[in-house]
Amino acid sequence: MASSAESAPALRMTDTEKFFFDLNGFLVIRGALSADEVAALNAAVDTHATDVKERTDPELRNTRAQTPLAGDGKAGRRDLGGMLSWPKPHCKPFQELLAHPRLIPYLVELLGPGYRMDHLPLLISQLQGSEGFQLHGGPLTEDGRFNPNLQYRCVNGEFFNSLLAMSVQLTDHNAGDGGFCVVRGSHKMNFPVPEKFTHAEIEQEHLYQPVTRAGDIVFFSEATVHGAMPWNADHERRVALYRFAPATFAYGRSYAPAWPEEMMNDITAAQRAVLEPPYAVRLDRPLLRPGQEEPVYDSRSEKKKDFDKQVFGNKYF
How close are the terminal C-alpha atoms of the chain, in Å? Predict the structure, then answer.
């Protein structure tokens, strides 16, 4: 399902968007970023292109050799990190994505108040012939057991995603180009993915590659089985992948004991709120709300906090 962003940031997901995210496990937001924003992101990547690491070692490849997702068998996926810590101005367009006015309504709706960045962002690049990525994710383990790390629910109209991906499209993905693919509806599956299907060796008609343009955003639950197809286009594929979690959840651990110091310099209060470690909203967590630039707080009474300080030596138990 694709949704078009309007000129002014929406303050909430529409009912149509909610329906299709719940149905499919992903949602495309068309034109979420301006051409200038995309240009700034790509210019920053160009400046740091020599830092790209290609997965050529067999132990690092994301596909099984000689399977439909393996590409030409030589070119590997190209990864680049550290964007939030780059010197100015190159860090700025990536920092702005943490609390972007067009994106906050979706992040709050899909993750709840106090959403937080869980993984360090990753720039994914593919050149023509590059391998894709075997299917992964999903609410079940390979042997069909409950996977507590990757779950999706919608209860009384409220979403729960234990881990949500936000894929920022920095180049066009036309039909047949390859790149991100998804098994629609698999965030609700009750049986494990067949091993051959993991490598696209059977039933390829169930793999869906969304057509996207630079500036589009793809939100998908990590509980939705997904992967990537080999890259077939002449132009380079680029996406900036962020992963977010609810206020009290964590999958990654780069936040402990603290995010890299250079990443925290000269960021806004809203961006800093997204980089808080996991803890409950009621413990003075800064919250972002659509249409508001500054974080707000949902706090316990000062009397209760003072009492806890007497008991525990800290106003936060």
Answer: 43
Residue 217 amino acid letter:
I
pLDDT in tens, the chain (317 residues): 676 654 567 789 999 999 999 999 999 999 999 999 999 999 999 999 999 999 999 999 999 999 999 999 999 999 999 999 999 999 999 999 999 999 999 999 999 999 999 999 999 999 999 999 999 999 999 999 999 999 999 999 999 999 999 999 999 999 999 999 999 999 999 999 999 999 999 999 999 999 999 999 999 999 999 999 999 999 999 999 999 999 999 999 999 999 999 999 999 999 999 999 999 999 999 999 999 999 999 889 999 999 999 999 998 88
Q: Which long-range contacts (CB under 8 A, 24 or more apart) does 261-264 make?
A: 262/85, 263/84, 263/85
Q: Which residues contact 221 (CB under 8 A, 6 or more apart)?
A: 25, 26, 110, 150, 152, 161, 163, 164, 165, 187
Distance CA 223, CA 136 (A): 9
- What are the Cα distances from residue 152, in Å, to 24, 93, 185, 308? 12, 30, 11, 34
pTM of the model: 0.95
Domain limits, the chain:
2-279
Q: Which residues contact 155 (CB under 8 A, 6 or more apart)?
A: none
Closest CA to 223 of 203, 248, 249: 249
Place of tokens 């049986």: 191
- In this structure, CATH architecture of domain 2-279: Sandwich (2.60)
